[in-house]
Specification:
By secondary structure, this protein is of the alpha/beta class. The protein folds into two domains: 82 residues, GMP Synthetase, Chain A, domain 3 (2-Layer Sandwich), CATH 3.30.300.110; 172 residues, 3-Layer(aba) Sandwich (Rossmann fold). Helix content is 24%, strand content 40%. The strands form three sheets. A seven-stranded mixed β-sheet has the order 10-9-8-11-12-14-13, with helices on both faces. The chain has a five-stranded mixed β-sheet with strand order 1-2-3-4-5, covered by helices on one side. Helix 3 links the parallel strand 8 and strand 9. The longest helix is centred in the middle third of the chain and has 13 residues. The radius of gyration is 20 Å and the shape is globular. The protein starts with a strand and ends with a strand. The N terminus is likely disordered.
């Protein structure tokens, strides 16, 4: 969403164009906004609520996503302190609280892109799966998928994942697991046809698990952060190094920018097919 906000500073009318994330559907949504330095945050929050009648809370970004749980620190600057919402996209619902879990409404199309590639009878693993948005997108788009395991270390996100699987009536397809990927993936007695690794900072540390758990000829959706001017180069080197270490052949099927990550940096994804040498 985009907001054009005007205010007066030093007797001059200034205009600020800013984007904000809108999470939630129906009668209740939460807006997450990055306030420009020197701007009147109270007036901006009031303007967002006035122009978006379903927005009941406005959160100001305090920090970037950080820590093991990938949470962004936010401050409530207007509205209801209860920020739990139901977010709807592409025919399914996701229950979540953006102050407790990581969720990006801007990645809705990317979730669909992954879901559209899944074929009948595939067994899928989604690492760092959050509130189970990718697994649910897959199961709704490809009802003949065999099984989807999703592993998430954040207990709050795991609880929401369990609830979202239930409310979307997908308990027979999706199996949420709470814990660290390195430990939990080894406990699953199956190989996977497809593994999604939607953690831009840090996914490379789990490629050994992905290579070990992947079925022959399977596909890894590897997410990373690319620098402007060499968007995919570093990611390609990471994949090449891992493939050599595990004595695998690989083929990059697609490289894509997902969305901006920070100034001159972008979240990118590489779809990679892995085979034995």
């Amino acid at each position: 969403m985009v907001l054009i906000f005007k205010y007066v500073a030093s007797n001059l009318e200034l205009s600020i164009t800013m984007g904000f994330d809108l999470i939630g559907s129906g009668e209740k949504a939460v807006a997450i906004v990055e306030i420009p330095e020197g701007a009147d945050e109270k007036r901006i929050a009031e303007d967002i609520i006035e122009k978006n009648k379903n927005v009941k809370s406005v959160l100001k970004k305090i920090s970037e996503r950080r820590g093991e749980l990938r949470l962004r620190e936010c401050e409530l600057i207007a509205g209801d302190a209860d920020t739990e919402v139901t977010h709807k996209e592409h025919g399914y619902s996701l229950r979540l609280d953006p102050q407790k879990v990581y969720f990006s409404p801007r990645e809705s199309r990317e979730r669909q892109r992954i879901a559209e590639q899944v074929r009948p009878n595939e067994t899928v693993l989604v690492m760092f799966s959050g509130v189970a948005a990718i697994p649910i997108a897959i199961a709704k788009k490809q009802p003949e998928v065999r099984k989807i395991y999703c592993i998430e270390i954040n207990p709050a996100a795991h609880r929401y994942a369990q609830e979202n699987v239930r409310i979307n009536k997908l308990s027979h397809k999706i199996y949420p697991v709470c814990g660290d990927v390195k430990g939990e993936a080894k406990k699953i007695p199956e190989k996977f046809d497809r593994i999604a690794m939607p953690l831009p900072l840090g996914a490379k540390e789990f490629l050994d698990v992905a290579f070990d758990c992947l079925e022959e000829g399977g596909i890894i959706h590897f997410y990373d952060v690319g620098n402007e001017g060499k968007l995919f180069l570093d990611s390609e080197k990471i994949i090449a190094k891992s493939a050599k270490c595990f004595k695998k052949e690989y083929k990059i099927l697609k490289e894509k920018i997902v969305l901006p990550y920070s100034p001159r940096k972008f979240k990118v994804v590489l779809d990679v097919q892995i085979k034995k040498i």
